[in-house]
Structure to design on (370 residues):
């Protein structure tokens, strides 16, 4: 279901350089999460042989794969890497075929057929063919390429929205065209140039695709691709159709953040530090009654903690709950004054109050129990 390509697409992020040790840690973290496939890099990448050897003993049920250009020489190299799958990339838009490859449609079909047949003769049991820039291609020709790949022995076709121009509705339509036309597995690779990657990947899976490419924090070329942590959490915690281990997702995200030099926004879905932090009076008071009112899943399921603080947006109900949670006391008649004091101090500090600051204010409006 999930093809994690942090070590291939993610490693192509501008300025990101993963050491061999970091790549091994990331791969093992993805395997522990339960990713069905981990794309550990590309043919010719420095250290790819050593990485494959290091990760193989820990791979379990996860399949290891590498990416290769559509060239027979590269496929021959890939065959010696002792991975489970080889993902061959081939552009299918006329712009790429002409300007990048310097050939025409017929020339592309011939090259693809030769390369896939060679991969099969070399003993590569699972060959995936990625149709690059499919979202800007002539769809009839793209379908012809997909059929040619299947006839030559490919086990999967991967549709790549290389510039992130698809919307969920267009993605649904595209999967609806390719799924019934193929008797092999179908995957998608969704870029995030317009913020659609995760939504497009979710839609593709719901529409019948077998796999979706992801990377931790969504890192990759330009704006990156669909995020591993978002897809895994959605499929496991919201959809509940898959058994991914999500309790280590945030630790993995933090590791990749440091290794790639990519800060995690505090409101980043699944990975952000403040996604279960609440200050709003209405929400804070509601959380004290039932966390399910304003939380999509249990914070502990992803290794997070709930944080509720009082501040400039807190009302009487939230303050009363905070008093009870902190074993603090304030006479009922003094509560409105305490609320005003909390709001004033919070606005002065331009942040929610710490538990110590809140306890200090209660001393001036009653007493704090020891």
């Amino acid at each position: 279901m999930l093809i994690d390509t942090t070590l291939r697409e993610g490693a192509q992020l501008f300025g990101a350089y993963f050491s061999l040790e970091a790549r091994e840690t990331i791969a093992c973290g993805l395997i522990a999460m339960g990713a069905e496939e981990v794309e550990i890099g590309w043919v010719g990448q420095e250290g790819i042989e050593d990485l494959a050897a290091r990760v193989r003993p820990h791979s379990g049920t996860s399949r290891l794969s590498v990416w290769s250009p559509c060239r027979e020489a590269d496929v021959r190299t890939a065959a010696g890497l002792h991975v489970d799958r080889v993902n061959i990339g081939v552009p299918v838009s006329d712009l790429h075929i002409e300007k990048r490859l310097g050939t025409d449609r017929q020339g592309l079909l011939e090259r693809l057929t030769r390369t896939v047949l060679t991969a099969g003769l070399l003993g590569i049991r699972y060959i995936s063919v990625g149709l690059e820039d499919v979202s800007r291609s002539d769809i009839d020709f793209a379908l012809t390429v997909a059929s040619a790949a299947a006839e030559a022995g490919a086990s999967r076709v991967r549709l790549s929205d290389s510039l992130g121009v698809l919307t969920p509705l267009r993605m649904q339509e595209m999967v609806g065209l390719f799924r019934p036309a193929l008797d092999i597995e179908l995957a998608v690779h969704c870029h995030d140039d317009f913020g659609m990657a995760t939504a497009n990947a979710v839609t593709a899976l719901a529409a019948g695709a077998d796999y979706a490419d992801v990377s931790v924090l969504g890192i990759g070329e330009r704006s990156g691709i669909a995020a591993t942590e978002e897809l895994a959490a959605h499929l496991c915690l919201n959809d509940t159709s898959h058994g991914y281990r999500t309790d280590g997702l945030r630790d993995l995200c933090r590791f990749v953040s440091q290794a790639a030099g990519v800060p995690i926004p505090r409101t980043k879905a699944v990975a952000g530090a403040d996604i279960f932090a609440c200050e709003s009076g209405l929400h804070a008071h509601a959380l004290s009654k039932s966390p399910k009112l304003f939380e999509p899943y249990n914070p502990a399921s992803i290794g997070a903690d709930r944080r509720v603080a009082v501040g400039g947006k807190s009302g009487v109900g939230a303050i009363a709950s905070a008093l009870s949670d902190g074993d603090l006391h304030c006479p009922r008649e003094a509560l409105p004054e305490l609320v005003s004091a909390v709001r004033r101090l919070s606005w002065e500090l331009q942040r929610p109050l710490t538990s110590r600051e809140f306890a200090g204010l209660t001393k001036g409006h009653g007493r704090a129990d020891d």
